[in-house]
Each structure stands twice: as structure tokens, then as C-alpha cells.
From TrEMBL:
Source taxonomy: Bacteria, Pseudomonadati, Aquificota, Aquificia, Aquificales
Limits of the Pyrroline-5-carboxylate reductase dimerisation domain: 156-260
Superkingdom, natural source: Bacteria
Protein name: Pyrroline-5-carboxylate reductase
One Pfam family from the record: P5CR_dimer
Amino acid sequence: MFKVGLIGCGNMGEAIVKGLSRKIKSTDIIVSDINPERVEYMVEKYNVAGSSSNRRVVENSEIVILAVKPKDLEETVSPINDSFKGKVVVSVLAGISIPKLKNLMKDSFIVRAMPNTPALVGEGAIGVSFENDSPEIKEKIIDLLSSLGTVVEVDEKLMDVVTGLSGSGPAYVFMFIEGLIQGGIKGGLSYNQSRELAVQTVLGAAKMLKETGEHPSILRDKVSSPGGTTIYALHRLEEKGFKDAVISAVEEATKRSKELSK
């Protein structure tokens, strides 16, 4: 019996496997995917077990993680829905609600999770909701997912917001970093110089925010000297609607997540 079975070996599936390998033995993980080459890649790179059969993965695992595309959910689980009986099923599919998952896998215990791609380096942000309040299962799943990064339990009705904020969030941050790099290059720095400074700036700012526990506006004001460079830059960002654009991005991704659930 494997501790974890994974169905779906895309980018998120790979991030999950790499993260879980820090917590449990890779040989305790079995994976499957519609693409046999992807399974072979996962087996060779991460030393997990691989299978061409989704049913075998489910029947031989204590916990099953579903990481297929939302549009492929029914096609994936319907032919083998009897095999989910008594299993803990963790879905990372954007927009697919617990009731819909339960309808497809009636005799299983459903957990809905939304990790993000930084899970690949152990720094993911994972929102999680549970079908019910079983303390034993909650503890087990949260402990397991903590190998991917920070786990935050939320009400299931807020999972679409989690998707819009942290699920899609890395893309917003990467775009911001890209802008910092290009700004440095425009000013005369080399790409490598600009990249190193930009990445460390974002990393350091995030760590400072996390460790101090202060509100972002307080830390922002500490950087902003009267009449200095930062306040001029912040004024321009406000003129360009920077914060409003970020809020709108989260709202749009949340809206799309809700649309996927219909």
C-alpha cells in the first residue's frame, strides 16, 4: 500500500510530488497520467512508482490526490468511482466544489486544496477546506501538505478567492519582478545584476513582512523618506493604478474560478 497516489502529473502534480518527497519516502508515492511519457519522467526524476492505471493508483493508496485539469475530472473518475470507497481524496482542481466532488466519489472523504507552484521549492501557499470536521483526517492532511509550504484552512465558499489570490498569485509576482528587472536594465544595469537585485528585493521584503507581522503600509512608510526617491516612485505607481490593478487581478481570477465550478 502506497501512502499517496497522484492522478495527474502536470506542473502542479510535479510540484506536489517534489514537496511530498521531503515528508515521505518517494517510494511511498505512486502516480498516473494520461500521458505515459509524463509518468516515465516522474518515475525517473523522483523515484516514485508509476502506473498506466488510475484504478490501480486509487486502490493501492491511502490518500489520493487529484491533479488533473478541471475539464477532465468526470472522464477521469467516473469509470473508477467505485474504487474511491473509504479513501481520502484531495482535489487541487480550481473551481470544483466539494459537493460536486462528493457527487462523483460518494463514499470517499473529500478535501479541497489549492496549492501554488512555489510548492516546487517548498514555499507554496496552500488553502484547504474539508468535507467535515474529522480531527484525525485534518491533522494528517495538514501535516502532509505542510511539506509544500504554508497551509491555511478556509471555509469552502472562500476557495475561489484563494485561487484568485495565492493560486494565481505567483504569476502576478513574476510579472512584477520582470518589471523591476526591466526597470534596472533601462537604467543601465546588466540583466544578471538587475535580476539578482530584483529577486532578492522581493524575497527580502516578503520575509520582512512575514517575520515582523506588521501591516504592509507601515513597512512601506518606513521606506518612504520625506521628499525622497521612494515617495516619488509610489506616487507614480498610484497614478498608474498599481494597487487597483492587483486587486482587479485577484477579482478576475476569483470570478473565473467560480465560472469553472458551473
